[in-house]
Amino acid sequence: MKVALIPFRKNLVIRMDNIRFVLIVTFATLVILMQQAWQLDYGPKPEVAPIVDPIAANTKEDLPSASGESAQTEPAEQNTAAVPLATVSSANIITVKTDVLALQIDLQGGTIQNLDLLDYPVEKSNTVVDKLRAMVGLSVAEKNTAPVRLFDSSQEKLFVAQSGLIADSGFATAPTHHTVFKNEQDSYDLKPGQDSLTVPLTWTDNGLTVTKLFTFKRGSYDITLEQKVKNNSDKPWSGRQYSQLLRAPDTTSSSGGMLTGGMRAYAGGVIYTEKEKYQKISYDDMADENLDVATKGGWTAMIQHYFASAWIPPTDQENHFYTKALNDGRYVIGTYSPPVTVNANSDAQFVAKLFAGPKIQPMMEKIAPGLELTVDYSFLTFIGKPIYWLLNQIHNAAGNWGIAIIGVTLCIKLLFFPLSQSSYRSMAKMRKIQPRLKELQERFADDRQRFNTEMMALYKKEKVNPLGGCLPILVQIPVFMCLYWVLSETVEFRQAPFMLWIQDLSIQDPFYVLPVIMGITMKIQQSLNPAPIDPIQAKVMRMFPIVFTIFFLFFPAGLVLYWVVNNTLSIIQQSYITKQIAKTV
Prior knowledge:
Number of strands: 21
CATH architecture of the largest domain: Distorted Sandwich
CATH class of the largest domain: Mainly Beta
Structural class: alpha+beta
Number of helices: 13
Shape: elongated
Strand content: 15-25%
């Protein structure tokens, strides 16, 4: 039995000697991939040909169809005269402004377009950073301080929210998003002290009157849509409501999000159903097959980096979700309601809600179940959610996201304190016996097997676990990756200031101070660890602080801040343990 164990022990010793090096190389590879991803989002973008003018040969192709029917079976009487959004006259446009939104409603169909998020500029004007750059003789670039435009009527960034009614076969016509409505005024503003604002649109034909009401609330990114049907004819009317998002994927910007491990943060369609919960419906999925799903409640959405748009139908009815791939690279995702019959001389009402705004999780949780899942933390969501919750709690108390990052770092260190304690003790013991290991290496330079046997005996005698030093790295890799996703996907970190020159935690340090400090702390921490016996590995390890510093130059300042605090705490803890071990005989 002892003879059989000799090769196994020999291989085990070799793996123990190299595993920490392999882990660090693996971690460095992850850092390289994430750094390349960051550059793809903030680096120069290739020129992309503009999208062709979206005038479809079949003007009904963007209308929903009942389950099992094709778009061509819609009633021929419906008014479907198509007009490109980009060429609609300003006389047909209503402007609406609240404290957080500025948008346009096209009288053709009541389509919501050109929606600006007033509290979210494209670029933040960093006065402190600009002054510091001027002081050291660096140029100050002009900032695009215009608000982020979520819905857009331009052809190259086409993205609008549409709604309407579809009359059931055999019944009178109904207003779709191609039908022209009427309105008495061309602008609406939410006045100071006013909590809500309602914009009415009306349409009448053959005794059927439809009033489309958009209600906006102060401080809110959700818009309530009511479509009131009044049947003044002598015949019943039956139809259903639909609400959809029409989009041409924006290939001219980095709205898709960050990358990690070679995977881009998701941008495209999503749905939430009672049975399957959260599901992604990519543009490729839409092109391959039209979606047709029935569910009670739920919602349909288009999401992107930091922001989302979703149609949310009533939760107490069965809704049908659908998708369509239209001409010229346009995609539709939406929902339609069950049919409602309105008898002669009676009325009925359809209701839906539109969310268009930042992906702030506590706010989205209150709007619709599962809407907060549009904040995509990849496969590490089970770790990202608790980290975000903790960050949010600390921020609510401190009022600063940088302090929240420091607080989370402290909490993570406390959580893994026993593990780190054991690991650092093992590394301190390894450091203590390092001279004896080198002596064994010189004595048995020509007998690798004897050296491995003597080294294992020394480890056993001194009660040293050579794998113990790898545990801190194993713990930090998933936390590091998860924090990368949290900082990349959480809109609260976008343009969030910390202190002094760090005025945006979601982008790189403008003066590269934090990455340099991180490299210094990494070098100090490395000096506390036992150097690899292999001289080649030792040389490579000495290069890691420099290599990591270069990569971290382009990482978000919030992530570098976490690493600096984590390294500093580790140095304090490891220094204390190393001194304690050194005092022992």
